[in-house]
Amino acid sequence: MKKMSQDTVCVQAGWQPKNGEPRVLPICQSTTFKYSSSEEMGRLFDLEESGYFYSRLQNPTCDTVASKICELEGGVAAMLTSSGQAANYYAVFNICEAGDHVICSNSVYGGTFNLLGTTMKKQGIQCTFVDPDAPAEELEKAFQPNTKAVLAETLANPTLVVLDIEKFADLAHKHHVPLIIDNTFATPINCRPFEWGADIVTHSTTKYMDGHAVTLGGCIVDSGNFDWEANRDKFPGLTQPDESYHGIIYTQKFGKAAYITKATSQLMRDLGSMQSPINAFLLNLGLETLHLRVPRHCENAMKVAEFLQNHEKVAWVDYPGLKESKYYELAQKYLPNGTCGVISFGLKGGRQEAVTMMDHLQMIAIVTHVADARTCILHPASHTHRQMTDEQLREAGIAPDLMRLSVGIESADDIIEDLRQAIENI
Ligand SMILES: *Cc1c(COP(=O)(O)O)cnc(C)c1O
């Protein structure tokens, strides 16, 4: 059969039942797996044979869903994790250790910023945060001899900075390190970072992939393109014997699957964080409609952004789909079919007007979440960042009047109507 379209992959990839097996992905709710001889079980522990033995490392339901995301991204191997945080942590820690250094865009999600800037720093891994819009010559200065990876988001949460992926990929490769892209907001429906030179993709599947705000989850996908062997000395964890597995060398034994195999057999074994099978099942239901929901989120967000832009009480609107956006050109290049459902905007008057407007909303809910089916709104100055003064907020790049609106898949007319009456009732 010729290569299937993304729409068909969303619905059909992953679970392929054999004769008489369930049509729908089974939930393997089992911590353990049975073998008839101790010899067979032993071979699994030596990584001589692939197979399941304990769900802390691998579970068939999770692997099946990971294989669907792998196909959507066009990768060679993938694994699920219990959260997006775990995905980014493992993606980096799989190729770094104490004494190493990574480079990360300074506009990444707050959780990733803390992970790299605080927690991994305590583990001895240093991070330099860079301005993603800086010219290549400027970014070049961040590289050190011990740099092991570059990390950034296709479409940053919540600043909606659109990354020039090719610029970042060229820089990373020039310095012999992989580019890791968090593709959560774009999803593979709107952008496939491997096509632009990224080596590894991560996801918080909690957002659009699940899409219904029911399960936390993450995923790591490897393109199989980065040549670890050509940079043997930089990546000893992959290219030199693993004494905890009788001296196997991941790149020699597993080829293009080396990176994911190591993350599974070493990091999952030692640190845990596998997604639970029931969560993977729910994630798969979300994936089955991803190709329908993502375009609708984008279409609705575009209409809402245009409405806000033309409203006299609205001070500013930030949405990369708008021609006026600083990121319009990059969005046209990397996300030609649409960006995402998230918009930032502010009202004339500022912080207090934002609070009053939000209290007048009837359908749109105030919640700490983005990227699910229901339209929701958050005001960082009153919620996630409420301990900060206006001045501190501005320093952190968050306008005191900024509201983050995550446009859902309801009727655009109803979303706009709710915003209209709330703004007019201030
Ligand atoms: C939410 C988010 C994360 C963290 O994911 P969790 O599933 O909440 O752990 C990481 N990256 C991006 C871009 C996100 O939006």
From TrEMBL:
GO biological process, one term: cysteine biosynthetic process from serine
Residues carrying N6-(pyridoxal phosphate)lysine: 207
SUPFAM superfamilies: PLP-dependent transferases
A GO CC term attached to the entry: cytoplasm
Family affiliation: Belongs to the trans-sulfuration enzymes family.
Keyword Kinase found: no
InterPro entries xref list: Cys/Met-Metab_PyrdxlP-dep_enz, OAc-hSer/O-AcSer_sulfhydrylase, PyrdxlP-dep_Trfase, PyrdxlP-dep_Trfase_major, PyrdxlP-dep_Trfase_small
Cofactor(s) the record lists: pyridoxal 5'-phosphate
Gene3D superfamilies: Aspartate Aminotransferase, domain 1 (3.90.1150.10), Type I PLP-dependent aspartate aminotransferase-like (Major domain) (3.40.640.10)
Alphabetic keyword roster: Pyridoxal phosphate, Transferase
Lineage summary: Bacteria, Bacillati, Bacillota, Clostridia, Eubacteriales
Naturally occurring in which organism (per UniProt): Candidatus Eubacterium avistercoris
Protein name in the entry: O-acetylhomoserine aminocarboxypropyltransferase/cysteine synthase
Keyword Cell division: no
